[in-house]
Amino acid sequence: MERRKSRKVRVGDKYIGGDAPITVQTMPTSKTTNIKETVEIIKKCEEAGVDIVRLGMPDIESAQAIKEIKKYVKVPIVADIHFDYKIALEAIKSGADKIRLNPGNIKEKWKVEEVVRACKDNGIPIRIGVNAGSIDRTKYPKPTPEALVDSAFNHIRILEDLGFYDIVISVKHNDVITMVEAYRMIAKMCDYPLHLGVTEAGTEFRSTIKSTIGIGTLLMEGIGDTIRVSLTGDSVKEVEIGVAILQQFGYKPTYVEVVSCPLCARADVNIIELTNKFEEKVKNLKKKVKVAIMGCVVNGPGESMDADIGVSCGKSGSVAYKNGKLYKRLNNDEILDFLLEEVSKF
Length: 346
Fold this sequence. Notes:
By secondary structure, the protein is α/β, with parallel strands linked by helices. It has two domains: about 10-250, TIM Barrel, CATH 3.20.20; about 255-345, Sulfite Reductase Hemoprotein, domain 1. The chain contains eleven helices and 15 strands. It has helices spanning about 35-50, 60-70, 85-95, 110-120, 145-160, 175-185, 205-220, 235-250, 270-280, 300-305, 335-345, and strands spanning about 10, 15, 25, 50-55, 75-80, 100, 125-130, 165-170, 195, 225-230, 255-260, 290-295, 310-315, 320, 325-330. The strands form three sheets. An eight-stranded parallel β-sheet has the order 8-7-6-5-4-3-10-9. Strands 11-12-13-14-15 form a five-stranded mixed β-sheet, with helices on both faces. β11 (about 255-260), α9 and β12 form a beta-alpha-beta unit. The chain starts with 8 loop residues before the first strand and ends with a helix.
């Protein structure tokens, strides 16, 4: 699967676009000015595998908080700004690694020029983020893919006219089909790196479905340089879902991959409980290893032999496989400890 060729943009110690790995982003659910809570959330997201964190900037105080927050976290920080150029300037001064800003929202040209100058001087890119809530409804009655893309280029041209090209683009929508079509369209029209996401995707259940289909479809087509799963809920869950999506495409290969069967009448071991316990133990373990947990002898041996480590469970005991070969027999109460011990060896 060949990725779309895009220019490479630096964000702190990470890169977006070009040959850089596809990154996972999130936003903390806390007020940015609540530094303690914000840092705690970011640290949990770092453990889950986040690469870049965006912070809401409703006021100057939020922008000033960036400097203190960066003392305690490792990931690059993006300042999310909408209308006030002074907040953008303060965020840059405070150490933001990237700005999310639609320059067309700032009416006076000289204010945009000041922000662009500050970004140039500090090597900070700007993400233009368009969605259904940010298009001009007097011009576009409905947020069609064409409307999203045209709106994005209205902002892009403002930056290009000022000689600024360290740009990342997003054309998000809450409707998966609209989102996919918008990204397909803009991917053909420029070489700027693309930030993928289904925005306002809802709570965990629906967001997981929408994000997996939308982001996954585009990744299959080689489109996308960074992703954010939008979730009405825990920021850590956003990261976990995002990492899981990338893992399916080999873009996040350093996490334990679990293959497990659905529970049915053939199973004599509670595979659901066993698998959940195992996944909870290894969810943040950065090891490239594939583990199969199978409930019976029908599909169990084949799937287990195809994994790095596998167990095929039975009523009177289970059979373990390692690197495609029969390894040993286990009592069923030994399975979890066995798997954890073997994973630790990789």
